[in-house]
């Protein structure tokens, strides 16, 4: 049986996948149809490895997070079974990997923006590689719904403008109360309307 | 007269068949609209490219020719007109971008970002020596600010806030967008961020 191995390098990240063609699926000799191993090395963090499901979860979480991040949304993204999650931590991002084995503590990796884009590019290369014939959960980048954007995008600036305009309106209208009312105005008019008596 | 950074809503329903490069078989969603800040975002991304590369306009035209967009970018005036859809520009044309224009700009930005990725990465990295990073950021931000002063409407509060912002958060945001626009799926990712779905599918 042919064992194939492909490597995807991007500055700080290096992803290696190994497997063999799925002959029953009609794969060519250069195509990986059955994934047997994968390893991911991010500089400054331990070597990651696992099953195909783990790589699928990692890909789903990272690509969803990057998709949100490019739209200006920074929010925690978790895989369905909570094996992989990524959340913003200050200017960086915290990647948490929970082991499926018992008594193994979750692994936390802090990555910056450049490492996130490296990792995203690595995973993009893998999922779009024609030599890999595997089904991934994350397929395409979709635009978000209007409602999603309204919920997660920071609209504080817009609210600030409304609040400021309201405060200015209140202050300017309350200033009008300080202007003294001319009480005599009506009296003078009334006085003028009184017909002049010519009795004398 | 006071001016604000609020941009009038110019939503436009587009044909979903134009949205994606369809890397894995195509998209299955309807009723897409262009986001209000799409033209602003694209123009600022080109401005960042111009900041990072000297004579970037020539490179952009060369790149457009290489990727088969030479018809759209036939002249500098045409390119300038497209960029003037950014409402923050001094020479704002009160027009909006068409889907085809967005498509071509996204392709162009993505392929230009690919060339500039090492520089973008250096600016975003927190692992580089701090003094070196600060120096790079000073050069980058001062150059970008001078381009903004030259081309944007300084009476806009948003433009003024960009020029006075010492944290350069918006510039960093643009660099992040540029870095995530690289690679085989970068254009598709950038393009998705410029649209929204009117209803969830």
- What is the mean pLDDT of chain B? 85
Order of helices and strands of chain B: EEHHHHHHHHE
| Rg of chain B, nearest Å | 17 Å
Number of strands of chain B: 3
Mean pLDDT of chain A: 88
Q: What overall geometry of chain A do the principal axes of the alpha carbons give?
A: elongated
Radius of gyration of chain A: 33 Å
H-E order of chain A? EEEEHEEEEHHHH
Helix content of chain B: 40-55%
Percent of residues in β-strands of chain A:
15-25%
Kindly state the percentage of residues in helix of chain A. 25-40%
Number of helices of chain B: 8
Instruction: Identify the strand order in the major beta sheet of chain A.
Output: 1-2-3-4
Describe this structure in words.
The complex is a heterodimer of chains A (200) and B (201). By secondary structure, chain A is an alpha+beta fold. Chain A is built from 5 helices and 8 strands; from the N terminus they run ββββαββββαααα. Chain A has 2 domains: 4-152, Transcriptional Coactivator Pc4, Chain A (Transcriptional Co-activator pc4, Chain A, Roll); 156-193. Chain A has helices at 52-70, 113-127, 146-152, 156-176, 184-193; strands at 4-10, 13-20, 34-42, 48-49, 77-78, 84-89, 92-97, 107-111. In chain A, strands 1-2-3-4 form a 4-stranded antiparallel beta sheet. Chain A has a 4-stranded antiparallel beta sheet with strand order 5-6-7-8. The model of chain A has no long low-confidence stretch (mean pLDDT 88). Chain B has 201 residues and is mainly α. Chain B has one domain. Chain B is 55% helix and 4% strand. Chain B has a 3-stranded antiparallel beta sheet with strand order 1-2-3. The longest helix of chain B is centred in the middle third of the chain and has 26 residues, at 99-124. Chain B is globular, with a radius of gyration of 17 Å. In chain B, 37% of the residues are buried. Classes of the chains: A alpha+beta (200), B mainly alpha (201).
């Amino acid at each position: 049986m042919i064992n194939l191995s492909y490597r995807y390098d991007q500055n700080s990240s290096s992803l290696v996948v190994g497997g063999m063609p799925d002959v029953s699926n009609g794969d060519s000799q250069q195509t990986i149809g059955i994934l047997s191993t994968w390893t991911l090395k991010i500089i400054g963090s331990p070597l990651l490895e696992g099953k195909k499901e783990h790589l699928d979860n990692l890909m789903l979480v990272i690509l969803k997070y990057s998709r949100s991040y490019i739209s200006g949304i920074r929010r925690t993204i978790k895989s369905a079974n909570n094996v992989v999650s990524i959340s913003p931590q200050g200017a960086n991002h915290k990647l948490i990997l929970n082991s499926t084995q018992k008594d193994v503590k979750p692994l936390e990796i802090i990555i910056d923006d450049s490492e996130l884009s490296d990792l995203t590019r690595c995973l993009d290369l893998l999922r779009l590689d024609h030599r890999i014939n595997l089904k991934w959960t994350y397929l395409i980048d979709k635009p978000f719904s209007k409602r999603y954007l309204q919920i997660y995008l920071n609209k504080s600036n817009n609210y600030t403008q409304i609040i400021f305009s309201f405060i200015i309106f209140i202050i300017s209208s309350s200033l009008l109360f300080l202007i003294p009312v001319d009480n005599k105005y009506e009296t003078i008019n009334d006085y003028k309307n009184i017909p002049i008596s010519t009795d004398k | 007269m006071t001016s604000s950074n609020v941009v009038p809503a110019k939503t436009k329903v587009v044909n979903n068949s134009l949205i994606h490069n369809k890397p894995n078989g195509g998209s299955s969603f309807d009723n897409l609209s262009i986001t209000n800040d799409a033209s602003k975002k694209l123009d600022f991304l080109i401005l960042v490219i111009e900041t990072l590369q000297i004579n970037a306009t020539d490179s952009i035209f060369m790149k457009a020719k290489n990727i088969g967009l030479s018809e759209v970018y036939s002249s500098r005036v045409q390119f300038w007109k497209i960029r003037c859809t950014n409402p923050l520009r001094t020479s704002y044309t009160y027009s909006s971008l068409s889907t085809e224009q967005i498509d071509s700009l996204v392709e162009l930005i993505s392929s230009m970002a690919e060339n500039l990725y090492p520089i973008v990465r250096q600016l975003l990295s927190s692992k580089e020596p701090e003094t070196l990073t600060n120096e790079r950021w000073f050069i980058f931000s001062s150059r970008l600010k001078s381009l903004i002063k030259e081309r944007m409407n300084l009476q806009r509060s948003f433009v003024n806030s960009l020029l006075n912002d010492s944290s350069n958060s918006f510039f960093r945001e643009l660099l992040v967008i540029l870095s995530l626009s690289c690679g085989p799926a970068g254009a598709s990712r950038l393009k998705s961020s410029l649209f929204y779905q009117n209803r969830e599918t």
